Structures are given as C-alpha cells and as structure tokens.
Amino acid sequence: MEAKTVIQLENLTKRYGRQAAVSNLNLEVKEGEIFGFLGPNGAGKTTTMLMILGLTEPTSGKVRVFDLNPTREGMKVKQMIGYLPENVGFYDDMDARGNLRYIARLNGIPDNISDGRIESLLNDMDLAKEADKKVGGYSKGMKQRLGIAEVLLKEPKIAFLDEPTIGLDPDGTNKMLDLIRSLSRERKMTIFFSSHLLDQVQRISDRVGIMIAGNLVAAGPLAELAERGLGLKEGESYTLEEIYMKYFKEA
Amino acid sequence: MNGVLTIYRKEMEDHFSSMRFLLITMLIFMVGVIIASLSGMSVRDELKGMAKPDFIFLLLFTSTGKLFSFVQFIGFFGPLIGIILGFDAINRERSGRTLSKLVAQPIYRDAIINGKFLAGVTMITILMVSLILIIAGLGIRLIGVVPGADEIWRLLIYLVLSILYISFWLGVAILFSVVFRSTATSALAALALWIGLSFFVGLGGSLLADAISPIKDTADIAEAQEAFIKNANVQRVASLISPATLYGDATSTILDPLRKTPRSFILMGPLERLSLSRFQNPLPLSQSIVIVMPFMVSLVSITFLFFAICYAVFMRQEIRST
Fold this sequence. Notes:
The complex is a heterodimer of chains A (251) and B (322).
Chain A: E1 5-16, E2 19-30, E3 34-38, H1 45-53, E4 60-65, H2 74-80, E5 81-84, H3 96-106, H4 111-124, H5 140-153, E6 158-162, H6 170-187, E7 190-195, H7 198-204, E8 207-212, E9 215-221, H8 222-230, H9 240-250
Parallel strand pairs in A: 3-7, 3-8, 5-6, 6-7
Antiparallel strand pairs in A: 1-2, 1-4, 8-9
Chain B: H1 2-17, H2 19-46, H3 56-62, H4 70-86, H5 91-95, H6 99-103, H7 109-143, H8 149-179, H9 183-212, H10 221-239, H11 243-255, H12 270-274, H13 285-316
Helix pairs in contact in B: 1-7, 2-3, 2-4, 2-7, 4-7, 4-8, 4-9, 4-11, 7-8, 8-9, 8-11, 8-13, 9-10, 11-13
C-alpha cells in the first residue's frame, strides 16, 4: 500500500527583502518515514521548517500538512506536530517535570494524563534520576533529551527536529540517532530532521533532501541519489559525502 | 482560553518566586508605611486640641508630613512597579530560546502577551490593595479615626486609578520587551519614557504654548489677559498627553475634595497649598467622580492603545531561534 503524503510543498518561496532564503521548493514527505534535511548552515533549512509549522508566512507557494494550511489552520496543525528548535531553551529555574508539565498544559493535556506520560518519558530519555534538579544545571545532552521529551509529550504525528545532534559528544550523538530511529520504528512517527552532518543523515534517513543556498538540489532515497548523482550501479558502494560534494559543486 | 490560563498561572508562579518582585515589594511597603506613619503622626500633632476636619482619614494618604505624601510616592514610583514587572516579558523568552518552542504549541500567539499582562495586573492589584489596607489599619491606630463611607469610596476610586496607571506602565514595558531584543535596552527605554513623561511634558507643554499662542506684551489689558489664558489652556491640554498628568490630576481631585483645581499634588508647591484655591466646603463624591471620569477614560484608552500596538507588533514579528 502506498503511504499517505503528510507534508506537501509546492513552489515554496520565502524572501527577506530581495534575498531569497528559500526558492521554489517542491517536496513531499510520506507518513512514517525519516526525512533527513541536509545542507550547509544558512541554506534555508530552518526557514523551511518554520514555514511548514506555520510560524513564518511563505512569500509565495503552498504548504499542506495533513491537507491543512499551517498559516490559516495553525491550531489544528500545531496539535499534530512537535517541534524541537535548534539549541532549544528551557525555563532554567524549573526542574524537568515543571518544564514538561508546562508544555503539557499548553497542549491542553489534563494533569492526570500528563503525569503518567511525563514519568515514562523521563525514564525513556534517561532523565529520571535528574528529574528533580533545575534544568539550568543540565548538560547539553540532557537538555537535548529533555527537548525530545517535550516533543513526544503531546504524541505528535510528525516531529520536526532542527539540528538535534548539534553540540553533542559522539556518544550522545549516537544515542540521539538511535532514539530518532526507534521513534520512527516503534511509534510510527514521521520524522523530519535537519543536519549539516552527512554521516548522521546517512545512518538513519529513509530519504534525504539536499538544500544549498535556498534551493533543493536533490531529494530522494540515498541509493537513488547515488545512481543519479554519481552514475553508480546498484550494489556499488558510495557515501553520502560523495553525493553531497557532487551536488554542492554543481550548485 | 487554555493557553492564556496556563501562561497566567506560570507567570504568577514566576512573579511570586522571583527575587525581583520580593525586593520591589519590600521597598514599596517599607517606604509606603514609613511615609504614611510620618503623615499620620504630623496630622495627629497638628490637630491636637482642634475639632476634627472633614476627610481627616484621607489626609493619611495626601498629607505631606515631613517628607512627601503616600500619593506623591505612588504617583512617582508606581510606574517603576509596572516597568519592573514587564520589561523582560517577551525578550527573556527570546534570549532563553524558549519563545520559538512556545509559539509552536497549539495556543494563539496573543495568549502569550495576554497571559503575561493579566498576571502583571494581578500582581499590581495585590500589591496596591494590601498596601492601602496596611496603611488604613495603621492610620486607624495612629489618628484614631475610622473612615466614613465617602472616604472609603474615594479610596476605592484611587485604588482603581492607581492600578490602571501602573498597568499602563506594564503595557509600555511589555511593548518594549517585544520591540527590543535585549532586556537592558527595553528596561532603559521604559525608564527613559517614564522620566520624559513625568518631568519634561510640563516643560514641553509650556514651550509649545509659547510657540502657538505667546503671551503678548501690550498695553491693552483685555488682549493681554486673553492671550495669557489661551497660553495656559494650550499648556494644560499639551500636558494632558502624559498619563502621569492624567493620573496626578485625577488622584488629587478624588482624594482632596476641598481643592478647586484638578492640578496634581506632585506639582503643587507649599504656597499653593495655603492659597485661596480651596473650597469652603468639600465637593460631593458624585461631583468628584464627574471630574475624574474623563481622566479615567483617557487613562484606560491610552493603556489599550499601547497594548494594541504591542499586540500588532508581536503578531507580525518573525519568531526565530537565532
């Protein structure tokens, strides 16, 4: 059975003044897949995410999320999606439970339901021991995991993770990638994540999109991109880096 | 509604647990109580052996005693309460990188500023009500008079006016916290506006009056008089732009029923206090209210104006984490 399209972008463009941050972006994301959004810093990855979330209005073009317009029907869209901003911040003088509780209440989840969810998420994210400490004293990795917990709290259908591994040590990065993969496999969640680190994207993505200077230069399953970009046959080995450099030079 | 309530609750918790609010409360309470007891003692001494005048209870708030009166104190430092409660409302979330997360939740964006504004207004109300109650209790002990119904009404109207006025400054502070990214800048901008509106509007008003209708130096007395009155009128209208003037005039009218002019206590010199600008009999409460009403309406509308600007700016603002 063909998977449902959950995100659909048509000729999406965003200009700041005369400069185009994103131009003529066409993209579809299917339900349940992990989509890795790849590109150098400042390529327009975050801007694209913000437009899909309805937090930034596109200059032109169309965004549909579950067939809804995020700018007009923002409330419905925001109920179904979770967003982890790059370098997410927390209320440092509250503990992990306090932060999670606040997000739960903003989502209209009653306390008696969120109680259980918070405890199980703290366990899943390996934060249960530190749950009573103020978040101001958390390490970068703990904050990132708490951020993921906040996203999962509302049980979203799609999770948007902006640079989820930035600033993490190698061990933390591996754990984070495993976590993202298990979210997709176990919870059947669609995951849209951005990164500028090639090997990470390669490791967990079902499909990737390569964005350079506001243009989506390639999108599709890795094997397909390899065939198209490098002219490789099936079975030959490749790395995402080779593909990426190829497109990067062309752009 | 859920969003406003949740944010309101969190902001209230933040206010109550913040060192900043504790300090300003302690400061205001300490100074307020000291001033009121000084006023009370001087009123008691001055009136020893004399028949008690009308509205003696209100003197507790308006009599300057040895320093300045409670009403002068709140008129001057009240804005600071509003500014302290609101100057970093939005840009703190921005610099803490929590704003982009917050607006991604299923709440309307205006719920964020509404919740913060309402929480601030609640804190102002709690502060002012408890302060006035403490002073009233102190006054009953010091001068041994119980306030009459008329005085209680006047105090209530004073309370509403003060809450409105301080809320206006809260609105200004929140607006600046939306416009300026840095908390230091927004605090300074709010302080600058406070100083400007409190001290320099009078000066600007007289400059404007001299420019529009200068006082003539002619032999014709009638003409000179007319020019003088016109000048004074322009000056007055110009100074009414400032909420500080509106508040000062309104409070002095409502708390001192014997005054003929609605001019502020703050600007009043000792000579004027003794001069002939006082009624023989106090103005009835209903008449005081008639005078105060336009001031109150203006104060409300200026507050709403600032809040509307704040709202419009915030709704259009680009929310980015970087």
